[in-house]
Design a protein that fits this description.
The protein is an alpha+beta fold and 204 residues long. The chain has 4 helices and 7 strands. It has a 7-stranded antiparallel beta sheet with strand order 1-2-3-4-5-6-7, with helices on one face.
Length: 204
Amino acid sequence: MKFSKWMKKSLIILISVLTFGMVTPSELHWLEEASADKNTNKKSAEESKSVHDGNDHSFTRYHGVTKDQFLLTMIEKAENTSYIKFGEKIAPKIQDEFKEVILPKMEEAISDVTASYDAEDLTELAISEKPAGGTGEKIFHIYNMKSGEDIIRFHVRRENPPQQGHWFNFHYHLRKDGYVKHHDLGKIYWDKNTPPKWGTGTLH
């Protein structure tokens, strides 16, 4: 709370009268300190937050973080967004293998792509938070907020080779090769039966 000068004076007079002068004006410096602390805490909370751009595209921006903190936050977000994409019908069956095999490779890919970025450059990067549902491939993209360009796209494709059942092919695309090449992250076997659509059910 920010006090105006006349409110401060009125409060000082009132407290002095009620306490018979036992509390002096110099002891009321806590008012200004409390106000300053509140403003500082508010600023810190806003340094890393989710926002929306003009296309109603959810993303998370990062400010004031080291490269290690950035990578850690990105991987945590990548894992959470992946589970949202899987949905409650697919996630329980593949999440352990995903975390053990695919996620470390995602981390390695993000680390490689952002290796040349300094801490200031990282503040321009954001991670999307809306994976594709149905049979769409998109898990999440990491992109530059200034240019709007994706720097890396993480996807998962459904495959059904003859007599081999259904598989999930995890891969990523890079801006530097026009998003054409598939950079392999690994495959996870589903079943002989067709898997449910992505995002089926809600994870709690």
